[in-house]
Amino acid sequence: MTTAATHLFSHVSPWALAGVLGLLGSAWALSSWQRLGISGELWWSSLRATVQLALMGFLLGWLFRQNSPPLLVFFLFLMILTAGFFNRQRGAGIPHAYWIGTASILLATSATLAWMLLSGLASLQGQSLVPIGGMIIGNAMNAVSLALNRLRSEIDQHEDLLLAMLALGASERMAVGQLYREIVRSSLIPTMDSLKSVGMIHIPGITAGMILAGMPPLEAVSMQLVVMLMLTAAVSISVASSVVLAGPLAVRFGPKETSRP
To answer: For the chain, which residues make up each domain, given as ranges?
Structure first.
């Protein structure tokens, strides 16, 4: 089964281009009508996504032709380093947020990919390693951003209690330890809700893409199940490790910041 969407970059047709612009135009029209102030950002973001995806398509094609596992691993490592910059933005106010995010994503990606390779659920071929690794990195990055943002928020809300515990001789890790459970739980809510609702409320992107590509539905949902469980494990590891690493640093940083005029 083929559609105009699957050949958007290789064979540009007027109808496919009109369809894409129509989808984007509807969002732009709504933004303009409601005066949301995001019309310019919407067009810029869409153009940026188009260029980035096109470049990724060419880059992945080149990577797959090289058939070099070390090169594939290096490519995933570069993706992890890049993901750390997004975590640094969301973790503003937490010292070393970039390295905490990078280390957490690296740990989650390494552990999850190693298990999948050992169990035969993935292979060292580019068509398997890069898409699976990319999904792990992207989801772990989003989860770590949520965790760091929530950590900063929780510390701000419980500042008086934390300062009192520190004044009484508690260590930074002991003081912030009582917040760990709530931070991790809230950061995992999107992943858990997606896992509980899949197949009932929505058809995930991987399943939809495989079915559109002609794969039998049962095979598509089988792969989707593996992917969702894989992402749940990776997100859990990345969130837990980022909170454990960032907690003492964040609570140590908080009182210094709040004491400034």
So the answer is: 1-66, 68-258
